[in-house]
Amino acid sequence: MNEFFPKVKKIEFEGRDSTNPLAFKFYDESRVVAGKTMKEYLRFAVCYWHTFKSQGGDPFGAPTFERDWNQGTPMEVAEKTLAANFEFITKLGAPYYCFHDRDISPEGETFSESCSNLETIVGKAKGYQEDTGVQLLWGTANLFSHPRYMHGAASNPDPHVVACCAMQVRQAIAATQELGGQNYVFWGGREGYETLLNTDMKRERAQMAAFFHMCVDYAKKIGFTGQFLIEPKPKEPTKHQYDYDSSSVLSFLREFDLIDHFKLNIEANHATLAGHSFAHDLAVAAEAGKLGSIDANTGDPLLGWDTDQFPTDINDVTRAMLVIIEAGGLGSGGLNFDAKLRRGSIDTEDMFHAHIGGMDTFARGLLTAQALIEDGRINEFKANRYAGWDTGFGKSMLDGNETLESMEAKAMELGEPKRVSGKQEMLENILINAI
């Protein structure tokens, strides 16, 4: 397997003093951290769409990438791209990949042709997985690119469109099961609205809930045991998304009796577009026991759209890894690099540079976060800060044994509370010094 990246050999760990741009400086897959190897803990995945289907275009410019796998008929391109994907992942040393159905197989002129195309490519992908040992982290369906989905998919006002959505998702779930996918993601790229003048929001949300219940029923019917995930996204392209952030998705799942069947796939760039930090949306999901998987990327704070850049901010990633470690890891999920090269990075070697940087950043974040946990000062400070809720009337209130009147009596008895510093700067210094 040496057709599309002949100049690149297997990427190896060489340590932080290495100057080799095609080597890991921090990601040593066999190193044990927090009771697991880095490979087991981080569970890196390569995303099919940005890595192999992106052509370097942006909203203001034409494509700039020239890739050997993009030559031929649609099915020839699909087969070449599949070969390039597994060659790349094998040389990179990532254990997983992710795809949308229309990434790996082209849409046909009819629904039957689309289904046949997907079945053909899935069969070939299964062979590559067996040959290489690379596994499928998750699959999903592209329910946003085709013009039929211009007003949404499961939330579309036309039941005919929703039927098309259901057909496509059924096939994608079945394909994910055939390939041994450990999760299935629902990404509502256009599940939202532009104006209430033409939208019945209550009806559309109910439609989505009914659709998700059908998906749960289908998974049980075919014996799919993978984890269902919903990926929050606040905007772009739709102005008002129903899956805005972790909190809104959890609220939706609870409202429609779906909470037992789904976890969340958190994307860093989506969290920041929602006005949160990456760590915040992770923590919201983790505290609900619903942190499932991660799309690892970052946005540009000077740009107002989903730029999907590779993560290189060790401060941000360390804060995220603190949440992930304390949540016990990602279970069946992983760290999928939903990120793409910049428009001017046109060499295929740049694909390796980008992934190496992202993998090293998360490996370093894992090491730093674990060192902070073992150091203990941050957790000790937080424990002391909330110690009043572990005993006395604080604990009594949480146990449901106090009233407004009894708490008022305590306030009158104790007088004005002593102000206590939050020590934010000191704690930030501890984090930065660990880095």
Automatic annotation (TrEMBL):
Transmembrane segments: none annotated. Keywords: Carbohydrate metabolism, Cytoplasm, Isomerase, Magnesium, Metal-binding, Xylose metabolism. One of its GO terms (molecular function) is isomerase activity. It is found in: Cytoplasm. Its EC number is 5.3.1.5. Homotetramer. Belongs to the xylose isomerase family. This is Xylose isomerase. It comes from Pseudodesulfovibrio sediminis. The lineage of its organism: Bacteria, Pseudomonadati, Thermodesulfobacteriota, Desulfovibrionia, Desulfovibrionales.
